[in-house]
């Protein structure tokens, strides 16, 4: 088996043969990755944590299905791997995903040709330190420029919406229906159904106020949920759901104009407007819940994370961050609730169920024995016990006459 040369920081100088380990998010090869194996990952903008995990297992090489750096985030993962002497290859492409089989033998040529058995399967590109350094510098410059623009927009938003953010000026009045209650804000997304299913027990236990953001109102209706409020452009919600029992709130421009108001009027549906410098239904829904004294605000979908902001600053909305800061300690992502309601079986629980089963069995035996004879319950039970005792004694002879 070919060994890597520690400290070279370049691609392998000779052909590598080793065991393939599927270390992508879908695979479980990282736990089995050992010295001399060839690791396959799917980690665009590879971060330091994953690189350290790989280095500790001393692979012969790491093949990334994605670019080690997209030029968006200045991450240190590829630097650490190269400094540890691990040859890097990238951009094989997602079409190889279906061909990866953990535990198979693979040959990796210095030029990046991958061969499984005798079949040439794909071509990866060797990654050099010069490429990594150049991409890092580009990403660093771009990140600084983008974040400067983002926080400039944030300051502008605060300047124009300070009355709303501080005192809720302009937010529609909803009464006390939200006060001191748990609120679930549901946003549209590919995993909305799965995430709602994950908090099903929470929904049943607390019956929270449901605010549907945008087209999530349609998804909730299909799942059997009836939202209390819909914050959306009417064009994103079916007429049937708009005519339901939910109170409809339209995102509006700061001057009060609400796109879709004509459709609402044509449907004969009453609606309120929420004028703000953002048209994000999710952010407006969070602000509504915060302004009306919700006890807890659970968001389903549309997460706001620093890594996401760094990676997609062009579409980062200052209102998303500020709305969650306004909600403060009240806001929590639905994945946290899902984890709290997931109970892993333990040996103690298993023993409890086993003991309960024995007690139920004993109770049934007593009941059958007591009711199975012609005498009273006590007589039947005593007779059955005597029979059982005599049978057990016959299994163990006393040894008389020896």
TrEMBL record:
Residues annotated as transmembrane: 350-371
Keyword vocabulary terms for this entry: ATP-binding, Kinase, Membrane, Nucleotide-binding, Transferase, Transmembrane, Transmembrane helix
InterPro entries membership: Put_SteA-like (IPR047795), TPK_catalytic_sf (IPR036759)
UniProt keyword Iron, yes or no: no
A Gene Ontology biological process term: thiamine diphosphate biosynthetic process
Record carries keyword RNA-binding: no
GO molecular function annotations of the record: ATP binding; kinase activity; thiamine diphosphokinase activity
Name assigned to this protein: Thiamine pyrophosphokinase
């Amino acid at each position: 088996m070919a060994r890597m040369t520690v400290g070279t920081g370049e691609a392998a100088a000779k052909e590598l043969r080793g065991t393939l380990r599927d270390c992508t998010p879908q695979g479980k090869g990282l736990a089995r990755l050992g010295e001399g194996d060839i690791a396959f990952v799917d980690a665009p903008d590879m971060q330091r944590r994953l690189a350290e995990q790989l280095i500790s297992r001393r692979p012969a090489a790491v093949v990334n299905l994605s670019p080690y750096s997209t030029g968006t985030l200045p991450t240190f993962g590829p630097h650490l791997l190269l400094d540890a002497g691990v040859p890097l290859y990238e951009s094989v492409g997602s079409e190889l995903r279906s061909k990866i089989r953990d535990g198979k033998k693979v040959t990796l040529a210095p030029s990046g040709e991958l061969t499984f058995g005798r079949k040439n399967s794909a071509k990866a590109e060797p990654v050099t330190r010069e490429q990594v350094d150049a991409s890092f510098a580009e990403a660093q410059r771009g990140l600084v420029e983008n974040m400067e623009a983002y926080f400039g927009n944030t300051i502008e938003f605060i300047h124009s919406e300070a009355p709303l953010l501080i005192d809720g000026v302009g937010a529609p009045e909803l009464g006390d229906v939200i006060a001191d209650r748990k609120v679930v804000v549901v946003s549209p997304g590919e995993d909305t159904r799965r995430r709602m299913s994950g908090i099903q027990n929470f929904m049943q236990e607390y019956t929270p106020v449901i605010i549907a953001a945008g087209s999530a109102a349609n998804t909730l209706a299909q799942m059997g949920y009836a939202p209390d409020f819909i914050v959306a452009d009417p064009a994103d919600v079916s007429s049937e759901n708009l005519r339901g029992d939910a109170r409809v709130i339209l995102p509006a421009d700061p001057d009060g104009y609400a796109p879709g108001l004509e459709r609402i009027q044509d449907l004969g549906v009453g609606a309120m407007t929420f004028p703000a410098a953002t048209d994000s239904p999710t952010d407006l829904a969070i602000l509504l819940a915060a302004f009306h004294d919700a006890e807890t605000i659970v968001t389903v979908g549309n997460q706001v994370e620093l890594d996401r902001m760094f990676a997609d600053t062009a579409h980062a909305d200052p209102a998303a961050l500020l709305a969650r800061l306004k909600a403060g300690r009240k806001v929590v992502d639905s994945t946290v609730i899902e984890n709290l309601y997931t109970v892993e079986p333990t040996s103690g629980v298993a023993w409890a169920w086993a003991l309960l089963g024995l007690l139920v069995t004993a109770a049934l035996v007593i009941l059958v024995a007591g009711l199975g004879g012609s005498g009273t319950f006590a007589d039947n039970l005593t007779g059955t016990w005597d029979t059982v005792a005599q049978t057990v004694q016959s299994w163990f002879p006393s040894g008389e006459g020896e």
